[in-house]
Amino acid sequence: MISNTDPAKIDLFAIEGDALDMTIYINYELIGEGRKFYARGNFEPYDGNPYTLATLHLQVRRKDGLLIKDWISGVSPADIVITGGHFTLTDEGFLESGVFDYDLSDGDFTIMRGEWFVKKEV
Predict the structure, then answer these.
(1) pLDDT-based confidence at 3, cuts 50/70/90?
(2) 8-state DSSP, 53
(3) Is the Cα torsion angle 12, 20, 106, 85 positive or negative in sign?
(4) Which domains occur in the chain, in start order?
């Protein structure tokens, strides 16, 4: 398979109703004509070099495709704040529990994707 990008596969976790405050570092390396991305929470990944971020778009969808969260950097109020090669996501959290799909892109490439597990609030 030939691909222009290999996004980092990272699963995320939250509890329904809890606020989100996450910092994620993004690194990359060139592989042929494409890019391989690495992501790690709170610390820079071991592999690759810091990826300079400009604009980010993060979407979370239910398994049936319904969009439940849509964050864009630079849009007031900005839920995604970019600082060099990492970003911070803050939000009031999820209103429903379940397993959701998400992807993070910079407008050119999908940088990170995976499942977001939201546990039910007790």
Answers:
(1) low
(2) P
(3) negative
(4) 5-119 (2.60.40)
pLDDT tens, 104-118?
999 888 999 999 999
Residue-wise pLDDT for 77-92, tens only, equals: 778 999 989 999 999 9
Q: Among 104, 118, 117, 1, which Cα is nearest to 55's?
A: 104
For residue 82, the one-letter residue type is: I
| 38 CB neighbour count, 10 Å cutoff | 22
Residues 6+ apart with CB under 8 A from 19: 90, 91, 92, 93
For residue 31, what are the β-bridge partners?
34
**Cα separation values, 95 from 31, 37, 69, 90, 119, Å:** 40, 30, 10, 15, 11
Q: Note if the bond before 77 is cis, omega within 30 degrees.
A: yes
Nearest one of 96, 38, 40 to 67, comparing CA atoms: 96
Residues 111/7, Cβ–Cβ less than 8 Å = yes
